Amino acid sequence: MLKALSNIGRYLVMLRAVFSKPEKFSIYYRQTIREMEDHGLGSIGIVAIVSFFVGAAITIQTDFNIENPLLPRYIIGVTVRDSLLLEFSSTMVGLVIAGKSGSSIASQIGMMRVTEQIDALEVMGINAAAYLMQPKLIALVIFLPILCALSVALGLLGGYLVCLVGDVVPVSDYIYGIQYVFYPYYLAYAMLKSAVYAFIITTVAGYYGYHVSGGALEVGRSSTQAFVLNCILILMANLVITNLILH
User: Fold this and answer.
1) Among 15, 135, 155, 167, whose CB has the most other CB atoms within 10 angstroms?
2) Does residue 3 lie in a domain region?
3) Does 202 reside within a domain?
């Protein structure tokens, strides 16, 4: 219990440093663009593959489970769309980025800690926590909602292609279902969840890397711990946000 409280206290102290005013905005701007390229553009491939096949699988499973002949066939398109918007895309992309970018952030900052590069930055009077984490945080908070929107689009495309080449539901019914009673509020809800997940991923991974001690073995262990805790916190945040907004 005391260790948990100590970790929470150190995490909050680190957040205060992360949100302090940057020394030079131009340096932070260039670094943020680099982080967007690394953690945003670099993640499009894996997000696209996962989203496409998940959308296709949801379409097939929905068709398999709808046995009532009284239900219209376009309900499959509605179900796939709302499932991706309300749950699958935001949470799935968050977990993927937690594994890809979160582990990378923890390892990168952890190696800088054990090789005393962070100590050197602090000796030079640089706010190391803000310099290392603020650009990553801004980049992911901006780009993760974009990846979520891309995931929704590719998931719907996966369902469309399954309908096109397989005996699932007529393509016209699927497209009609996608367009049927669409609430833009659902998309805003997915974007909000993605931004919250981005904050969790960056700060938790950064915390584990920033406070690592020992050698390369400890860096790997902290990276694994950051990923596990990120997954747990993402699922908890999903439950809390869903209960607060959709309840």
Assistant:
1) 155
2) no
3) yes
